[in-house]
Design a protein that fits this description.
By secondary structure, the protein is α/β, with parallel strands linked by helices. About 40% of the residues lie in helices and about 10% in strands. The strands form 2 sheets. It has a 3-stranded mixed β-sheet with strand order 3-4-5. The chain has a two-stranded parallel ribbon with strand order 1-2. GO terms for molecular function: phosphatase activity. Keywords: Hydrolase. This is Haloacid dehalogenase.
Length: about 140
Amino acid sequence: MLASPEWSRIAPHWSENERDFLNLVWHRLRAWPDTVEGLRALKEKYIIGTLSNGNVRLLVDMAKYADLPWDVVFSGELFQTYKPNPNAYLEAIRYLSLAPHEVAMVAAHAFDLRAAAKLGMRTLYVHRNQEETDPDQEAIKTQR
């Protein structure tokens, strides 16, 4: 990508280390300010985890960097399919030995919540200013 014309003016000025640092920025994301406290509270009573289209290493690095107290990390990479494919959700649920109605998908992405709801999962919408907005978000806030 850095060899492409749109990057040709700045790419030569970056060392290999600088390029690697920039490329791995997703591994060093900070959590939203309310996230860690909220997850710790949920963890007292529930199994908490992530189901992401990111790869396993990315999710582990994110958890360590942001102090995310997940009990389990699920990646579409493990199931060889990605959200919103129903198999991604169903495989994660299967590994937890739960039925869809016993699981809640908490997300800031409407596509994720719609896919989970179609499988019988409970859904909780978390509004984040920098994330997508959706005209149907009221309809997916708390489906039970």
